[in-house]
Each structure stands twice: as C-alpha cells, then as structure tokens.
Amino acid sequence: MNPADAVAAMPPPDFSLWALFWHAHIVVKAVMIGLLVASVWCWAIIIDKTLLFRRTRAASDQFEDTFWSGQSLEELYRDHQENPGSGMAAIFVAAMREWKRSFEGSGRQIASLAQRIDKVLDVTIQREVERLDSRLLFLASIGSAAPYIGLFGTVWGIMNAFTSIAASKNTSLAVVAPGIAEALFATAIGLFAAIPAVLAYNKLQAEVARQQSRMEAFADEFSAILSRQIDERLPLAA
Known about the structure:
- The protein is an all-alpha fold.
- It has a domain at 24-69 and 134-237.
- It is built from eight helices and no strands.
- Helix 5 runs parallel beside helix 8 (173-237).
- The chain is rod-shaped, with a radius of gyration of 30 Å.
- The chain starts with a helix and ends with a helix.
C-alpha cells in the first residue's frame, strides 16, 4: 500500500473542541487553560461591577431625592451617620463629620473650615472612585495581552506540528491540518477572552467617569451650601 492509500484509509480527524485541546502540545494546553481561567475571572469582574454600579446609581438617586426634599442636614446626618454606605451618602457624611467636629469642639475653628471640608470631599470622592475602579485594570490587561498569549500558543503549536510533519515525512493535508487546527485554537481562545474584556472595560470606565462627575457635582453643590452657612456663622464666632 502506497502512502496515499494509507492516508486515505485513515479515519477522518476529530476537530471537536475537546479533541483539539486534548491533542495539543502541553505548552499550548497550558496557554489555553490560563486564558480560560482569565476569561472566567473577567466575566466575574464584569458581572460584579455591573451589579455594583447598578446599586450605586440606585443609592445615589435615592439619596439625592432625600437631600433635595427639604429635610434638614442634621436629620439627614443622623439617618446616615451609622451606615453611610457609598457614593453621595458617604460624601455627605464625611463633610458633615468635619463640620460637626469644627463646631462642637472646644476651639470652634471656623476660619479654615471651608478649605478643610473641600479637602474631605476630594479625599472621599477619590476613595469612592478607587472603589468603583478597582479590578478594572485586570480587564484592560487581559484585553491587551490575551491575543498575544494566544498567538504564543499558536506559534508553539505550529512549530510542534511542523516538527511532527518533518519526522513523519508526510505533507498530506490530512496529516498537517490537525496540528495547525490545534495551534490556531489557542488564538481563538485568546480572542474569546480579550474581546469581552476590552468591551466591558471601556463601558465600565465610562460608567466610573459618569459616577465621578455626578459625585463631584454634588460635592460642589453641598460645599456651596456649607460655605454659605459658614459665612453666616463667622460674625457670631468673632
């Protein structure tokens, strides 16, 4: 039997996803497993952040409605001081604590209170933004690195496939195709991990920017309210 008849008599290769993974080189398998784990972790971050932003928006909407409803600042502070949560409520409580420390202490230091409140507002906003932005860098890293990691697995698999072809001295497509398909599977998994990570990162970063802008606008408005009250109390303190 000549080589062509032997190849024709061979059973058709199995190109299922499991077969492509199982017959791949150990290095390519390690690349695939690493990319799949990274993809699962990316989806966990995406789901967690989506739910977090939804809760933050709802809490901010509720707090803003309460804040502008005409309720006194003292009552609002008493309602939130024990459990301010996050977002606008945390910003409000942080500023009110600085306000009350200045007026309830023995020194009654009012002259620089506006600057201290602005500093407290800036620090609290930065802390809230860091909380919203945490772990998003991982999405960016996977989005940029996963295709190259998959390409590394593909290059390694193709090198191994050509080595096997040279050893078998048979260049038939039936012999070449399985090894090439196994190698290209690594790039496919890399793209599978990278594309959702990039799209989610861009969307979530835009949401962080919107939340930050909203908190900064509220902080400016609240700072103006407190500044007016400070100006009213300065003659009394003098």
